[in-house]
Amino acid sequence: MELRSKVQKFIKVSNELIVGKPRQIQLATTCLLADGHLLLEDIPGVGKTTLVKVFAHLLGLDWKRLQFTNDILPSDILGTVVFNKQHNKFSFHEGPIFTQLLIADELNRATPKTQSACLQAMAERSVSIDGKQHNLPSPFFVVATQNPRDNYGTFPLPESQVDRFLMRISLGFPNKDSETKILEGHNPIALLKEQKTILNGEELLAAQAAINAVHCKQEVINYLLEIVHYTREHHKGLSTRASQGFLKAAKAWAWLQNRDFVIPEDIKEVGHSIMNHRLLSEDPPDGERMKDFLDEIYSGIDVVAS
């Protein structure tokens, strides 16, 4: 099966398992294809962890789930060096971060010290333990869930870590039809047992390579730069890391629309999920406020590409 068709099948099956969330699934797929880490933020009980488990199974990746709590330590994530009496030497025992897909559940329930243990891994795909660098598997993704900051027992993620997540997505409550289906017994995790994997790690890497080859003409890059620099003049401002991810996400979105070139609408489609956690402090931002915020940005620049 042609690679793009496999990815489209992955999205189709994901929508059959996770009902009523087509846009969130499309954005989450875009994030992974753009080789970015994903932050799922919402109140408990709306399906954040279930979505990640569905993705992990259908992608056929090696994955591990780590439940973050306020007493978890950095060594519980990265691993530790222990003395081996039998061989009379120290050896490194890998932590759960040594996997292709790490589900970091309720990340903001851990202390800032523990949260920061993920920084190097997310940026460099490696960790340093006892002066030695250990490379992580490829592909490597962190898909984290977090509860709103006003929930009891949470610690806000530092900006340096927030910026390492390419996208932040909120699932929200299901609509009435979707919730009716859930109450009638629709169980995504149970259905997964009957579902074969659709993609593997090599195919995912090949899809990422295809996305890198998507063309973006200079006028569209200029349009993206206008947005980025507008945020720097009027808000906190997007980092260079964010602008690079912004372009890759736009390419991934275009590729999923069966195009091999980027148009300004692709940038707008992914803009919300890339900018909301970097520029707005409300957690998560109110839908109307976010719409007004994006309208302000888009109306503040000239559309220079068509």
Structure explained in plain terms:
The chain has 14 helices and nine strands. With 306 residues, it is of the alpha/beta class. It folds into two domains: 3-199, P-loop containing nucleotide triphosphate hydrolases (Rossmann fold), CATH 3.40.50; 213-306, Helicase, Ruva Protein, domain 3 (Orthogonal Bundle). Helix 1 runs antiparallel to helix 3 (48-59) and helix 10 crosses helix 12. The longest helix has 17 residues, at 218-234. It starts with a helix and ends in a 7-residue tail after the last helix.
**DSSP helical segment count:** 14
CATH H-level superfamily of the largest domain: P-loop containing nucleotide triphosphate hydrolases
Provide the succession of SSEs: HHEHEHEEEHHEEEHEHHHHHHH
Query: So, CATH architecture of the largest domain?
Result: 3-Layer(aba) Sandwich
- Cα shape: globular
The first-level CATH class of the largest domain is given as Alpha Beta
- Share in β-strands: 15-25%
Distance between the termini: 33 Å
Structural domain count: 2
Instruction: Give the low-pLDDT segments.
Output: none
Please give the largest β-sheet.
5 strands, parallel
The fold-level CATH name of the largest domain is: Rossmann fold
- What is the topology, as strand order, of the major beta sheet? 2-5-8-1-9
